[in-house]
Each structure stands twice: as C-alpha cells, then as structure tokens.
C-alpha cells in the first residue's frame, strides 16, 4: 500500500460531490469525526425515545441539529468485527481471524489492505485514531515488543496519529499506546503479557479476591489484577504505565481534543476516529459521574459517554469549526447489561431498556445486536436539523460514502462491500438500502430486506446464560416481519417458504460476490 502522502498534503478535491452535498457556491472540505461508542444500545440514549431513564443532552443536541436514524446497523454484534467492517468496507465474515480479538492479537487489518484512513489521506486529510482499538497490533500474536516500538501499527494503515488502548478495558495490557509506544513506561520495569499462562508470583482475581477493591467478576475476568480489578489475560511489569480506569474517559478525550486543536491550527482538514471506552466493562466512571444516574456504574458510564460527546462539540464550537465538521455518532454493537463484573447493572436497570423494543443484544443475531444508535450532524453540508430517517442503512457504507464526499476513487477490489450512499447518510435520501447483512458472535449471518428479517439455520447456542442474552440461533430458518414484529417473537418462515428461499438466495449471492 502506498502511503507516501504527507500529513499536511492536499489531494484533488471532489468538488462536485461536495457541492451536491450542499456546500453551496464555495465548496469546502468538512472535517470528519466518527464517535464510536462501545456496547451503547439503541435504547441507552434519550434521543431515541422513551427507553432510557438516563438523559444524554449532548447526544440530544447532535440529534436536534442533525439527522437521527432508526434503522442503522453495524456489520456485527461484537466489537472487533464491527470495527473491521467500518474501517475496511469489507464484511468481516469474509476474512478469517476477525472474531473477538485477545489483547495480544496481531494486526487484523494488515498493512497491505486499503482502509478508510488511507482514503481520507488521499483526499488531503490528517488522520487520527484515539481510544479503544481492539483490532490487534504487531505482526504475530503474542510477539509484540510492548517495551519498544510496536510494529506494524496504526501508522501502517493510514493513521498519522494514534493514542489507543490495545484491546478493551477488560483485557491486558492495561496501558495506553501512543504512536506505537507504551506511554509512561519505565524501562527498568518491562511489560510482559500472556494469554497462555499466569506469571509466577503475580496475584490473580481467582486466587486473590481480597485484592479486588473496585469490582469483582461475575463470570470470567479473573486473571491479572490492575487497579483493583481483575481482567482477561495475565500481565506483569509496566507499573508506571498502567491506566487508571476512572480516568480513561478524560485521558482519551483530552487526546482527541488536542488532535482537533492542532489540526485546526494548521488549517488542515482532519479525520478523527474516536473509539470511546464507555460503556464497556469494567464500568468505573469518573467521580464526576459516579452515582449520578441512579442506575449504578452502567448508567453512570452512559453519562460519561455523553460528556465525551459534549467535550468534542464544545471544542469544535470554540474553534469555530462545528458547522463544517461532519460528526457521525454510533456504537460498535448492541447492549449488554452483565458482561462479566458485579456492578449492579442488572439489579439497578429499573425501567431502562437498552435494547429498546428489540430482542437480543450484544453477541446476538436478533435486531438489538446490530441495530444501534446513529446520528449525523453537518449544518454546513445541508444536513437538516431535527430530521428522523427510518431508512435501512449499514455502517459498511460509511467508507464509500465518505469517498463520494471527498472525491476519491476507491481502488478496484478494495472496500468491496461498501456502497456509496452519501445522500442517505446525510438524511436526504430516505429510501432503504437494498439489504443489510448482519453477523452474530457465533458467525451466524442474517439479512434484512424490504421490512423482513431472515436468519439462516445454524447450530450455535440459543442463549448465553452468562450475559442473559438470546443469541438468535436455531437449526431451522427464521423469518420475521419487522414492520409488525420488531421484537422478532413470531417466526413466520413456515408461512412464507418462497420468501425464505429468496432471502437465502440473496445471502448466497452476497457470499459468492
């Protein structure tokens, strides 16, 4: 992959695309920010109706000043594959090794693959990834040099700057990595990471529960102890570099804001991929939010997520660039309540419905697994305030839609599943995507088309008892009329055999492309 474009270089503009987007007589490239929440359900945000008992005013502002989508889908109901699909424009089920990544996974997006930041680079944008990553680092699993320069890294797939968590908050290594190097590392205290066996003499959540001062696991998550919380995987060393969970939202937001300010000062258009840690487990919100939601740490983490959105918008406002910044807000997958820690999330849920009126959640083939919050704001681009779009759409199309916006021709064979849908993204085209493909954690694949939902037969488990979520797997075909049965309670496959054949044929065709 040719990545010789300078950080502040300018590529030829797609002025016709910008004019069509509504930039008026003087087209100007918008800045682009994708705010990608973690496990934030459709019903977790107050802008989506009467499902949430937590008020999220900053997200409500985005929705009031932009377009809110009711039927937007990620590619997958778990983190790693959803992020892969977004950044590559390729369905993750096409590529082996795109399942939930361990903390020591190798780079899942390989350097020779054309990426969304590559494309934005071609258009003259400076690019950054800040926050959760969970797409692997280095060339080989378990062989990363955590004490030196970790390569390949994000600079090899199109990002000029990065400040990331290697995987997730519940997986080691629990350190920040900036431009390929662990932040604050003491060379005299090197980091060691293992997902194969514990380190002798290091306490674990399983053997030393008395050391778990902040949260205890409800299932799994009983290995290395960091900040009074046990994690997945084992780690030792790097004491000065370890993050403090209560400060994660502040630290990554600070880095995102710094990138925005630097880019604005250089008068260079920027692309920021901002992956929040909220509301993933372990949920340990900053003291500013602790206890405020009345719903325990999960509800407090929703407030933390909303605060981060507000900080991004306040920064854009202060710099005078908010109107010409295209902000896309969504989540990697649907919600989960108890995902491995005793944080009272189930007991304190009350009337709050993270899944809205839908069935399932994170990990699931049902709608709540992949239908997520989705809001777009860009006043200078003609995005109408307060619009609601029921159009069926997919995160897979963000890649090609942004290419359409900035006038870049995607190389043949790259981003193969992404379709240009700029007018739909901006809330002008209210028609549905022809179909949307969804993937569950078990690899089961479903299809939404013309108001119908089809889940092909598979032998995966029907229920995940650890997290209390129906997974949507069955050995028989499932067909649901989403217009009348959004909760997917009535399988009508037996009543519509011809439609089942058509939906399966469509899936087979997509696979064979």
Q: Care to describe what's here?
A:
The structure is a single chain. The protein is of the alpha/beta class and 513 residues long. 56% of the residues are buried. 21% of the residues lie in helices and 16% in strands. Among the domains are: 192-236, no CATH class; 436-512, Arylsulfatase, C-terminal domain, CATH 3.30.1120.10.
Which descriptors would you attach to this protein?
513 residues; alpha/beta; Arylsulfatase, C-terminal domain; ten-stranded mixed beta sheet; four-stranded antiparallel beta sheet; 10 helices; globular; disordered N terminus
Helix content: 10-25%
Q: How much is the radius of gyration in Å? A: 22 Å
Cross-sheet strand order for the largest sheet: 7-6-5-4-12-1-13-14-2-15
The CATH architecture of the domain at 436-512 would be 2-Layer Sandwich
Query: Assembly type of the shown chains?
Result: single chain
Task: Give the termini distance in whole angstroms.
Answer: 23 Å
Tell me the CATH topology of the domain at 436-512: Arylsulfatase, C-terminal domain
User: Please, what is the average pLDDT?
Assistant: 94
Per DSSP, the total helix count is 10
Low-confidence stretches: 1-17, 19-27
Strand count: 22
Give a quick account of the main beta sheet: strands, pairing sense, barrel closure: 10 strands, mixed
Query: According to CATH, what is the class of the domain at 436-512?
Result: Alpha Beta
Net shape:
globular
* Beta-strand content estimate: 15-25%
User: Which structural class do you get from the secondary structure elements?
Assistant: alpha/beta
In terms of topology, how is this protein built?
Elements (H helix, E strand, L loop, with lengths): L14 H7 L9 E7 L19 H8 L2 E3 L2 E2 L5 H10 L27 H7 L3 E7 L28 E5 L10 E3 L2 E2 L9 E3 L30 E2 L2 E2 L3 E3 L11 H18 L4 E6 L20 H24 L5 E7 L35 H4 L3 E4 L9 E3 L3 E2 L3 H9 L15 H4 L10 E4 L5 E5 L2 E4 L7 E2 L4 E2 L7 E4 L15 H16 L1
Parallel strand pairs: 1-12, 1-13, 2-15, 3-16, 4-5, 4-12
Antiparallel strand pairs: 2-14, 5-6, 6-7, 8-11, 9-10, 13-14, 17-18, 18-19, 19-22, 20-21
Helix pairs in contact: 5-6
């Amino acid at each position: 992959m040719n990545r010789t474009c300078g950080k502040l270089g300018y590529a030829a503009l797609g002025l016709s695309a910008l004019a069509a987007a509504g930039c008026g007589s003087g087209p100007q490239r918008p800045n682009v920010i994708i705010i990608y929440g973690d496990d934030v359900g459709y019903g977790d945000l107050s802008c989506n109706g009467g499902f949430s008992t937590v008020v999220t005013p900053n997200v409500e502002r985005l929705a009031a000043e932009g377009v809110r989508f009711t039927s937007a889908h990620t590619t997958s109901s778990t983190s790693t594959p959803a992020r892969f699909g977004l950044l590559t424009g390729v369905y993750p089920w096409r590529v082996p090794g795109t399942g939930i990544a361990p903390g020591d996974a190798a780079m899942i997006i390989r350097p020779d693959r054309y990426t969304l930041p590559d494309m934005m680079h071609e258009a003259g944008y400076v690019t950054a990834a800040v926050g959760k990553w969970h797409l692997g680092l280095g060339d080989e699993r378990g062989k990363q040099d955590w004490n030196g320069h970790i390569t390949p890294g994000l600079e090899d797939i199109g990002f000029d700057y990065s400040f990331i968590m290697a995987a997730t908050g519940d997986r080691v290594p629990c350190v920040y990595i900036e431009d390929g190097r662990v932040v604050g590392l003491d060379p005299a205290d090197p980091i060691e990471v293992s997902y194969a066996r514990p380190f002798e003499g290091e306490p674990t959540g399983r053997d030393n529960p008395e050391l778990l001062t902040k949260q205890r696991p409800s299932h799994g998550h009983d290995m290395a102890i960091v900040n009074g919380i046990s994690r997945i995987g084992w780690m030792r060393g790097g004491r000065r570099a370890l993050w403090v969970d209560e400060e994660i939202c502040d630290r990554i937001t600070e880095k995102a804001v710094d990138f925005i300010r630097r880019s604005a000062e250089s008068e260079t258009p920027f692309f920021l991929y901002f992956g929040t840690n909220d509301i993933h487990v372990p949920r340990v919100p900053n003291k500013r939010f602790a206890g405020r939601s009345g719903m325990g740490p999960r509800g407090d983490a929703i407030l933390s997520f909303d605060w981060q959105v507000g900080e991004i918008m306040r920064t854009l406002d202060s710099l005078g660039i908010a109107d010409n910044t295209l902000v896309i807000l969504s989540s990697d997958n649907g919600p989960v309540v108890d995902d491995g820690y005793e944080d009272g999330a189930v007991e304190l849920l009350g009337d709050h419905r993270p899944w809205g009126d839908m069935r399932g959640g994170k990990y699931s083939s049902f709608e709540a697994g992949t239908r997520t919050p989705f809001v777009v704001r860009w006043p200078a681009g003609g995005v109408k305030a307060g619009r609601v779009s029921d159009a069926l759409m997919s995160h897979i199309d963000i890649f090609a839609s942004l290419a359409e916006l900035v006038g870049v021709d995607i190389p043949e064979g790259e981003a193969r599943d992404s379709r240009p849908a700029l007018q739909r993204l901006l809330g002008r085209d209210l028609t549905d995507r022809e179909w949307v493909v969804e993937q569950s954690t078990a690899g089961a694949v479903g299809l939404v088309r013309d108001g119908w939902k089809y889940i092909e037969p598979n032998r995966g488990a029907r229920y995940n008892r650890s997290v209390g979520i129906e997974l949507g797997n069955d050995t028989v075909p499932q067909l649901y009329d989403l217009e009348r049965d959004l909760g997917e309670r009535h399988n009508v496959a037996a009543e519509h055999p011809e439609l089942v054949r058509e939906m399966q044929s469509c899936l087979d065709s997509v696979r064979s492309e």
